[in-house]
Design goal:
Layout (H helix, E strand, L loop, with lengths): L15 E2 L10 H13 L10 H16 L8 E4 L2 H10 L8 E5 L8 H10 L2 E5 L8 H12 L4 E6 L12 H10 L3 E5 L11 H4 L3 E5 L11 E5 L49 H15 L1 H21 L15 E3 L7 H10 L2 E2 L1 E3 L2 E4 L7 H14 L2
Parallel strand pairs: 1-10, 3-4, 3-5, 5-6, 6-7
Antiparallel strand pairs: 2-8, 7-8, 9-12, 11-12
Helix pairs in contact: 1-8, 2-8, 9-11, 10-11
The structure holds pyridoxal-5'-phosphate.
The site of pyridoxal-5'-phosphate has 13 residues, from helix 3.
Length: 385
């Protein structure tokens, strides 16, 4: 079992930060790497041609290890989820009347591309809402999603868990069903990968897209995507020099190349060799590979279990453990609670969580302790007396 790793970060001691789903704090090691990258440009004579490739290669390898992908060349550096999704949408053609299945209130970067694509082809975004009941809510929501995947479904675009309240989506079952009808499975892993195990070999998505600044412990402005075989001969959304074959040879760049670098590298964003962001994200993912997502998940489960049981006993609603993240979950208030009052109260006590829809979104990390979660519970209980 892992122990608290707060000493690896520089979170101020006075705050209770339970909001990694918003943004992770910075690892000290990533901060150092970023400063090194920034300072490197003081003397560009020391930035070699190889430097354009070396850390990017390491980053791809580290992420491939994290998601159990055998081929790091399928991993691509992206600036944002919207960018990674734009690549996906660019390579899908729909027929009139077909549909793309998404979960209700999915994160916008995994909704708007589908809306655009469906509008272009007179197809439909099928938004699958949760059931009206709070009994077996997660289980029933998953059943609804599976039932909605039918012969006309071309794409299921979803996440391992819902960004707003942590409801888990059973990607194995969704993959099985989507395969039965010949639909692609596109996964936004931003709120899951890094904090819970994710194995591309068992889930077999067609694409996995992740922002880097949350559970991958990276800086803002860089993320990672993994593209499967479907995208092998696809068209990127931009044409940059470094994605072409033999771009390592700087003397030959204007002997224009018709071929791309191998694997999925054609999809990488221009200037992806970012000398500041790449080494920072690399530190984050190396650290995660060392801690291991399954152990981070177990740690989050351990520090939240008892405090959350206390809340449930007092009339707060939290999804069953099997159908929510250990690191990300929504707390719904007893009827008659005043959310604005609660927000102000928690802020006064320097407890940081998010408010998404009608849930208080709590997302602890490896730098939290059970006392942090208990503090949240104690203050929440005071507000509903
Ligand atoms: C599920 C999910 N996807 C993506 C993002 C970020 O998207 P983008 O990188 O396009 O800004 C977030 C940010 O909160 C998110 O929660």
């Amino acid at each position: 079992m892992l122990t608290c790793k707060r000493n690896k970060f520089t979170l101020p001691p006075s705050i209770t930060y339970l909001n990694c789903a918003y943004m992770s704090p910075l690892l000290k090691s990533a901060e150092k790497a970023g400063i090194r990258g920034l300072r490197a440009k003081r003397n560009p004579a020391l930035i070699s041609n190889e430097d354009f490739f070396s850390d990017s290669n390491e980053l791809r390898k580290a992420f491939a290890q994290l998601i159990h992908a055998p081929d790091p060349l399928r991993v691509v550096i992206i600036p944002s989820v919207s960018y990674g999704m734009a690549t996906v949408a660019r390579n899908i053609r729909l027929r009139k009347g077909e549909n793309v299945v998404v979960a209700d209130q999915q994160f916008p970067s995994n909704f708007y591309p589908w809306k655009r694509l469906c509008d272009d082809y007179e197809a439909e975004v099928k938004v699958i809402s949760p059931p009206d009941t709070m009994i077996d809510r997660g289980k029933k929501w998953n059943e609804r999603i599976l039932e909605s995947i039918t012969i006309g479904t071309r794409v299921v675009a979803i996440a391992p868990l819902h960004w707003a309240d942590g409801t888990r989506f059973d990607l194995m079952a969704i993959r099985k069903r989507s395969e039965e009808v010949g639909a692609l499975l596109i996964v936004d892993g931003t709120q899951g990968v890094g904090a819970m195990p994710f194995d591309v070999q068992s889930i077999r998505p067609d694409a996995l897209i992740c922002a880097g600044y949350k559970w991958l412990l990276g800086p803002y402005g860089i993320g990672l995507a993994w593209y499967g075989k479907y995208f092998d001969e696809g068209v990127p959304i931009e044409e940059n020099w470094i994605n072409r074959l033999h771009s390592e040879d700087f003397t030959n760049l204007v002997n224009y190349q018709s071929q791309y670098q191998p694997g999925a590298l054609r999809y990488e964003v221009g200037e992806h060799s970012n000398f500041i962001l790449v080494p920072m994200l690399l530190k984050g993912i190396q650290q995660l590979n060392n801690w291991k997502p399954e152990r981070i998940e177990a740690y989050c489960r351990q520090i939240t279990q008892e405090p959350l049981n206390m809340l449930k006993e007092k009339g707060f609603w939290i999804e069953d453990e099997a159908w929510r993240g250990a690191h990300l979950f929504g707390i719904r208030l007893p009827s008659g609670s005043d959310l604005e009052k609660i927000k102000a109260h928690l802020l006064r006590h320097k407890i940081f969580v998010s408010y998404r829809g009608n849930a208080i979104r709590v997302s602890p990390g490896i730098y939290n302790t059970e006392s942090d979660v208990k503090r949240l519970v104690r203050e929440l209980l005071k507000t509903v007396k």
